[in-house]
Amino acid sequence: TMQNSIITKIEALGQEIEVRKQAQQELEQLNQELEQRVEERTAEVVRQKYILDSFMANVPDSIYFKDRESRFTQVNNALAALFDVNDPTDLVGKTDFDFFPEEEARPKYDQEQEIMRTGQALLNVEEPDAGGRWALTTKMPLRDEHGDIIGTFGISHDITDLKRIQLEVAAANEEIRILNEQLKEE
């Protein structure tokens, strides 16, 4: 009886060992699949980072990303050059108030806060830019992987020459209007 009991227990242990071996093989297979997916996802993230880094390094328009307090979290080389800064990371943590007078920085800040509040982008807004320049700016909400708004990002194109020409045309038109009135009076 004792021998039969021992044999039964040994057979049960053998079956348990086989079940565990099968489970271990399945876990190893799942682990390999998971490692493959992690490698693929890592490669994709590296590709996306390379694309963003290339874009930020080479686009001549000013590009920025800001947090919920409108502090720069990332800027491109063009924006750093506009602010006369050699390294774009030197702008991280700063705000428009560090570069613009209050009357120019406040509207930018208020726009960004409204974008974050409503989730609505501002498209093609003409606004004063650094150093007395003008920019055509688009600002959008920055969302995290869950869709929550975590800041803003934008791109600005220098339109200073266009604004200068517009002002010259407006001044010329005003001069023509004044001369026309003088002619009528004469």
In words, what does this structure look like?
The chain is rod-shaped. The chain contains four helices and five strands, in the order H-E-E-H-H-E-E-E-H. 14% of the residues are buried. Strands 2-1-5-4-3 form a five-stranded antiparallel β-sheet. It is α+β, with helices and mostly antiparallel strands. The mean pLDDT is 93. The longest helix is centred in the N-terminal third of the chain and has 57 residues, at 2-58. A hairpin with a 5-residue loop joins strand 3 (122-128) and strand 4. It has helices at residues 2-58, 77-82, 102-118, 160-185, and strands at 62-67, 72-75, 122-128, 134-143, 149-158.
Which features would summarize this protein structure in a list?
186 residues, rod-shaped
What is the fold's blueprint, element by element?
Blueprint lengths: L1 H57 L3 E6 L4 E4 L1 H6 L19 H17 L3 E7 L5 E10 L5 E10 L1 H26 L1
Antiparallel strand pairs: 1-2, 1-5, 3-4, 4-5
Largest sheet: 5 strands, antiparallel
Order of helices and strands: HEEHHEEEH
Please state how the strands of the largest beta sheet are arranged side by side: 2-1-5-4-3
* Head-to-tail CA distance between termini: 136 Å
Cα Rg? 32 Å
| Chain-averaged pLDDT | 93
Hey, roughly how much beta strand do the residues contain? 15-25%
Number of helices: 4
Poorly predicted residue ranges? none
Helix and strand composition category: alpha+beta
Form type: rod-shaped
Share of residues in helices = 55-70%
- Number of beta strands: 5
